[in-house]
TrEMBL record:
The organism of origin for this protein: Nitrososphaera viennensis EN76
UniProt GO molecular function: ATP binding; glutaminase activity; metal ion binding; NAD+ synthase (glutamine-hydrolyzing) activity; NAD+ synthase activity
Entry GO CC: cytoplasm
Gene3D superfamilies, sorted: HUPs
InterPro entries attached to this UniProt entry: NAD/GMP_synthase, NAD_synthase, NH(3)-dep_NAD(+)_synth, Rossmann-like_a/b/a_fold
Record note on quaternary structure: Homodimer.
Domain NAD/GMP synthase: 30-272
The organism's taxonomic lineage, starting at the top: Archaea, Nitrososphaerota, Nitrososphaeria, Nitrososphaerales, Nitrososphaeraceae
Protein name, entry field: NH(3)-dependent NAD(+) synthetase
Keyword tags: ATP-binding, Ligase, Magnesium, Metal-binding, NAD, Nucleotide-binding
Length: 278
């Protein structure tokens, strides 16, 4: 895993720009809440929204924003969807935060659904394939409840995950709106502090929990404190890999790794390919 000294390095200044005094947390929250309320109204989603609650940072922030935008009682449904690799503490953290927000919430164990699917699928020992199946089962359960309750599905991916493709296509990437799509992971954490998300969730390592001991940063191979300044330079500032590396004082190979993730995952951010109009 890449480990960099942020105490005096150039990228620390970029990170500070993203999450420090230049990041107006109150204004950002108000803007996103206005977006949520307006989108739900325009869609005539009488039931409000349904959010998948993982017990992690992103879903906690999205749930809090939705509760503030729509009012907690009845218009926000939080679904906690544990699988075989979901720690009990995640379920408990998600439920406790939902109660704190005053939103309706339910816990549905999706493992029987995943297991039934595996019984009729080829017996292949591939944890990523099974993990992606798990994510897509969660999406299906969210949309089931959305349809029944006349709700929209509020996605919980952030700009870091979307940019590098760290989500399952038609799984956790499937949503009607993604309130924090414009915020990098480090910014979401700062917004979480403003929204008074519990400390246990704020400090928890990001993980989709698709298999045992699964954490995002271990799978990616670097921290979001490293990824976000690089993405800012590549995506927002439109710098080349060489320019970004020079500006941040990081190895060019590290920048190119992030750049490669962005390029390789472009299909995840696009509509399905179709032939030219005949």
């Amino acid at each position: 895993m890449v480990s960099l000294n942020y105490s005096s390095s150039p990228e620390s200044r970029v990170l500070a720009r993203l999450t420090g005094g230049g990041f107006d947390r109150a204004k950002t929250a108000k803007s996103i809440e206005k977006f949520i309320a307006g989108y739900v109204k325009a869609a005539r989603a009488e039931g409000g929204v349904v959010v998948g609650l993982s017990g992690g940072l992103d879903s906690a922030v999205v749930a809090a924003l939705c509760a503030r935008a729509l009012g907690g009682s009845g218009r926000v449904l939080g679904l906690i969807l544990p699988g075989a690799s979901t720690p009990n503490e995640d379920v408990e953290d998600a439920a406790a935060h939902a109660r704190e927000l005053g939103i309706e919430h339910q816990t549905i164990n999706i493992e029987p659904i995943v297991e039934r699917c595996m019984q009729v699928l080829p017996d292949i020992d591939n944890k990523v394939a099974r993990g992606n199946l798990t994510a897509r089962v969660r999406m299906s359960v969210l949309y089931y409840h959305a349809y029944v309750g006349r709700r929209l599905v509020a996605g919980t991916s952030d700009k870091s995950e979307i940019s590098i493709g760290y989500f399952t296509k038609f799984g956790d990437g499937g949503a009607d709106m993604i309130p924090i799509a414009g915020l990098y992971k480090t910014q979401v954490r700062e917004l979480g502090r403003y929204l008074k998300v519990p400390g246990a969730i704020l400090q928890k390592k990001s993980s989709p929990r698709l298999w045992a001991d699964h954490t995002a940063e271990d799978e990616i191979g670097m921290s979001y404190e490293t990824i976000d300044p690089i993405l800012y330079m590549l995506v927002d500032r439109k710098k080349t890999a060489k320019e970004a590396a020079a500006a941040l004082g990081v190895p060019i190979d590290t920048v190119k790794r992030v750049q490669a993730m962005v390029v390789k995952s472009a299909h995840k951010r696009a509509m399905p390919a179709a032939p030219p109009r005949l």
